[in-house]
Every structure is written in C-alpha cells, then in structure tokens.
Amino acid sequence: MIAAFVQSSLIRLIPVGMLLLAIQRTVFVEIKISGVIVQLVLAFAAAAGASGGSERGAVAGFVLGAMVDLTQGTPLGSTAIAFTIAGVVAGLLALVAADPQWWLQAIFVGLGCAAGETMQSVVRLFIGEEHPWPANMGKVLFIVTVSGALLSPLLIPLSRWCLRIRGAEWTAPTEQPPV
Predict the structure, then answer these.
(1) How far, in Å, CA of 112 to CA of 7, rounded?
(2) Alpha-carbon distance 151 to 130, whole Å?
(3) Domain range for residue 90?
(4) How many Cβ atoms from other residues are within 10 Å of residue 103's Cβ?
(5) What gap in Å lies between CA 115 and CA 77, rounded to an integer?
C-alpha cells in the first residue's frame, strides 16, 4: 500500500498543489484583475484534465479542491466538487484532438476553469449560502477563463510532470523498398 502511494502521482501533486495554493493565497490576493482574484489552483486542476484526460483531471481536481477547502474553512468537499468538474470538463474537451496544439489546450483549460467557477456557485447554492452567485458573475467568469487560458502554457507542462505523463515519441518512418 505504501509502495502504491509512493509510485502514484499524488507524491508530486500534493507538494506542487501546496506551492500553487500558497502563491494564490499570498501573491494573487494582492494582484487582482478588476477586483477578481486569479484562480491559479483551479487553472492547475483544469490543466491536469487537459493534459491527462478526464480521469486524471478528476483526481487532481479533487485533491487540489480538498486542499483549498482545508485552507479556506469551507465545508470539506465543496470546492473539491467544483475543481473535479473543472478537471473532467477540460479532460473531456481534450478528447477532440489526439495531440492538441498549445492554443487548443489553452482553450480547454479556459473552458474547464469556467465550468469549475460556475460549479462553485452551484455548490454554494446547494450548501445554503445566502448569496451564492456574485453580483458580477459575468466579469468573474471572463477573468477566470482568460487568466486560466493565459496560464496554461506554464501549468500544462507542470501538470504533465506531476501526473507522470510522457509525450508521444516520434519515430522515423521505415524505408520501403521500391516495388
């Protein structure tokens, strides 16, 4: 059991997630775009889905969301559900292309971030918060989506390393003798 944990991707995902969460809670709280905090950890969960598929994105999103829940004091699992949805959506969108270009992966990460941010408000509604939808939800969704897409060239290689995903190796075509 311990050997399975050591060989899993969680051994890399948890420390990287803690580092990204610390950056989000310290640096990005001070650097707001039009009053909206950039969701770095949500973008990382969506990047894990875009690079590793929906199953790995779901696992990464749940782990990262649980870490956010533990630091913010929200009910455990509320943010984890939203981040899981972000990873799954980005992973399902990545099925469109076998080996997508960087700009297409950026779109997948952005749409995964939009789904995750929307699900956070839906979960808040089910929990029973008084005001689950921000007054400026359109602006929040736009900024979170665009910032996630802009951060994806940095987060996708990091998520590929955390999830132990190797790129496809190119092999030269074999020479065919003339007929």
Answers:
(1) 27
(2) 32
(3) 12-23+37-162
(4) 10
(5) 17
